[in-house]
Amino acid sequence: MFENTPLARRQWTGLDDQHLASIGFVNFAWNALERKFASLVWITAGWTQEVGELVVAGMGNVCSSRSSSIS
Question: Which sequence spans correspond to the domains of the chain?
């Protein structure tokens, strides 16, 4: 069982709590920007929110698509 302590997190991830918090913040900011960009794409295309979200949901993540084609 994993103990949720600073020492255990450091041993498990190799990162201290400050670095883990930074990664969490960057992830949160990236997701917000990605969502904003997606909404701009379907607004530019003239789609309703429902159609735009459906189309964008069917698209793969650029990072995932690129890393899988590199491997």
Answer: 6-70
